[in-house]
Every structure is written in C-alpha cells, then in structure tokens.
Amino acid sequence: MCGIAGIVGFEAPATAHRDRLRVLQRALEHRGPDGRGEVFVDGAALAHTRLAMADPIGGAQPMTSPDGRWTIVYNGEIYDHLALRARLDWPFRTRSDVETVLAAFARWGVAALARLDGMFAFFVWDAREQRGWAARDRLGVKPLVYRHRAGELAFASETKALLAMQEDPTADPRAVIEYLVAPCFSGVERAAFSGLEILPPGHWLSFDRQGLRVRRWWRWTPRPREAPPATLVEELRGRLEAAVARTLQAEVPLGIFLSGGLDSSAIAAFARRPAFTVTFEGQAAYDYGGSTIVRSDDTPFARMARQVFDLPGGEVPVPRREIAGDLRRIAIADDALPAWEQEIAQHRLARAAAATVKGVLVGDAADETHHGYDFLLDEVATSEPAAILRRLGSVPLRAEWGSDPVATLGAHYRALTEEAGDGWDTPERRRAATTRLIVERWLPRLLHNGDIHTMDASLEARVPFADLALLALAQEIPPAVAMAGGVEKWALREALRGVLPEPLRLRRKSALPKDQQVEAIYQAELRRVLNDPPALVRRFVDLERLAPLAERSLTEGERAQLFRVVCLAHWTNHYRVREP
Questions:
Q1: Hey, what domains does the chain have and what are their CATH numbers?
Q2: Whole-prediction pTM
Q3: Helices (H) and strands (E) in the chain, counts
C-alpha cells in the first residue's frame, strides 16, 4: 500500500519535472512513511512513497526491469502473485508483488489486468515505445487521479497531491451538485476540482505522443448459473474462507474493522486477528427505529464476536465534544468531499488501529456484490434511480441549478445503466439495474472513503470481498437465490451457518454507526457557516431554505444535510477552492 505520482511529457527531459514531482511526493507521505523513491527516464518522472507490507528491501520503488525498458510505480496488493510468477519467464530478483505486476505487464500488456487478483492502481512506462499505461482494479479499491493538458500527463493517488502543484483550484460545479444531491454516487465519475479526472474503476489509460486514451477492461456482468442453491452456498463459503486467507498474506501485523455485522464478523471468524470497533456516547439509547440505515447498536454484537472468536483489540470511543473538530479533519482528509457521517467512524478507527497494526481487513463490497441492501426488495425504491436519492435526502440548491436536481441526476444514472444494457421495464430488470448502480457508483464511493481515511493514518485496508474468485461467484448467484425468501444476503447468511453464532448470522443489515445526538453540534457549525459563508457555499446552497434547520429539531436526513454543508465549507476554506 503506497502513494504513486508522476509527470510525463515529451517536450522536456524528465529531470525538468524534478521540483514538481517532489511536491507531489511530499503530499503523499502519509500513504507511505516507510520509504521514498523517484526515477527520471526519458519523458517520465515517477515518484513513490511506500508502506512496506512485505519484502522491505526488494519491494522498493520505482522499479525498473533488468533491461531498462519498463518502469513501474504501484499501489496495492496482488494476493496470487507467487502463482502468477510460475507463468512468467522473468529473472525475478525480489519476492515483491510489484515485480510480478511489472513482469506480467511486460509480457501481456493490458491483458495482464484480468489475471491480477487483488487491489491495485499503477503506472507503467515503456521507455522503448515512449508510452505509459495506468490502470485501476475492478471495483476501485485503490485510487488514481490525473490531469492532462498541454501534452503533459500528471497523476497521483490523491487529488490533494495534484492540487499542491497549483494555486486556488476551481470547483467542478457538476461534482459539487452531485455531492450535495447524491452523495452516495458522488466522487466516482468526476473529481471535485476542475481540470482533474478520476480514472474509473476497471479502466486503463494510455498516454503517448498521439495523446491520451481511456478504456474499460472490466465491468459488473451478472451471469446467473443454474445450480442447486445448496451447491452455490457451499461454494460461497469455501471461496470466502479462501479469500480471507489470501488477504492475510503479509509480513506485518494485521487487524480487522469489526462492526458485529454479518460481513465483518465472517472475516473475524476466518481471520482471528485484533478487532477494532467504534463506539459513540449514548449509543445504546439511540432511536434506531427512526434511522434509515443504522438499525441497531453495534457494540453488543461486536463484543459477542470478540468473545466467541477470542479476539484481541477493543473499542474506539469517539467523544462527542470532539466531533466538531472531526468534521474539519475528515473534510481535509477526504479531498473528494465527505459523503457520509460514518466517515468520522472510519477516520477514528484508522487512527486507533494504526497504533498497533499496519493493515486491516474490512467488510466493504459484501453488501454491494451479494445483494445486501433491503431496498432492492422494495419496488418503490427500485422504480427509478431518483427514488433512492429521495429516500436519502439532498441539500437544497439555489434555483439557478435547476428546479429538480434529483430528477436530473436520476435520469443521468438511469442512462448509465441503459448504456450497459440494463432496462427498467420489469421488477427483475429494475433490481438488476439498481444493483449495477450500487456496484459501479455506490461501492467505489465507499471504497474511496475507506482508502482515504485508512491511508491518512498510514494504514492499509484490505477487502476480502473483492477477491477475484469470490467476485466471480457473486456474479453467478441468481438474485432469487441471493435474496431467497425476501432476505437480503440470504446465500451469504446460509454460507455462514455454523461459522457464526446465530445472533450475528441473522442480524439485520446496519450501517457503520454515527453519533445520533449531534444535532446541537451540527447546528452550531451551521450557524458559523451562515454567519460567514464561503463564496462557493453561497453559490450552490440555498442558505435561506437551509437556515431554519439551525433552530429546530432535526430528522436524520436533515442532520445529514447539515453535515455535508459544514464539510463543504471546511473543504472550501482549506483547499482555497474558487467558485466556477
């Protein structure tokens, strides 16, 4: 797990980019405190910051092939890389997966991507052909952003690195609107800053003197297999156990983020590593019946898992008096803008875990790829993309941004699914189209949040449910089996029968917790914004319609609105973002 960056051009020697490259590198030091490297080869200036999980000597980067033709900067983990080596004729000098990826790309080019089992974002430079390639993993676990202008490509693991090379960045209005209206889908299609681009999950990019190309190499493609449910369930259990085993490969201590839900408890059962659970003040007394996504208190379930599986670790408390400061901290860390209040929990968990372990296994991608959201069974919620947005709520925008931005974005998301071949004419097709949105837009946003907050603490997050074999099986399990009997994740729950205690196996889906008694804190923060609103906030948010929320009792959705507006203000001020 690392930070990667580079500047590629053809009008000047690579060394001409030295100073700017080091600006990029310094901005990524939190992603890789264990080592730094840089290389200047022909038109490419490449930099790396390293979080060493294996082969601390041999895995140093940038790494160049013995013949000098190929150079790579790489971020991620490939769990089957030793088996992949057996298929490669290459004079391996290290035991690092970096060299395996380099050798695989040198032999197969972009066709190598489908052979890689793990999470990755990397850039490879071909000195002979004067051409570079960047690529991201299937689901978007590892990030990559870039800027292409005036015949030059600059890229980095985080937008804040590219921002360090320019003054007073400008907001992308479409990205800000999507954040305020549809946070669950934001930060995936476009960066929040004008002029910067996100390489989408499952895509590769090439750059040479003829210009830049971006192509998709993987997408979510359900292909239901006719097999008895018992057969699929048995296979699912085996693949999950194997996936957890693969993601435990490391030469450093690993832990688990444990919520006491089905997914993280399953990982804990198979991994048996230190487990970390976030807690908030008064959590047991919250009104979970009135919550849209947080349905129960995690604490007793997480304690049960720790006791049953004899897990070290413990609980990570979040003092309410510090939450106002947390809003600013996460707005700075998440340069794509914080989408959910639960990012406070992610940030706190990462800071606590990093004191004793160097990586954690997380349950992300389970709900999205195994039909874990109960709204998939709701014909109203799946009637159109806008229905999901209305259920979650949006910040009121100024009239200049349209009379119904929810409907506008909903139509855009519908078009994305239709381009992929999905339709909305039957309940089954609507569920399939909604699932695509969840996998291709909702999940990458969740994975971004997980990466940005763990890496801010120099901690690697590993995602067993993104395992190649497990992901392939998830696409083969028919929805009627995955949600048999109207139970979300039925197949996965059945696969864990006998592995988990029944209260854990049958626990209803509940999102990562948040403090549900922060109304006064959010309102005080909103009043500060209203007293001196940044120009960008004034440009997008209808402050007159929002202002009454500072004085009256709030619903869960209204608290979420205040959260986003306050984070937008902190983000704008910290990064000195200009309005478009």
A1: 2-216 (3.60.20.10), 231-383+424-505 (3.40.50.620), 519-575 (no CATH)
A2: 0.97
A3: 23, 17
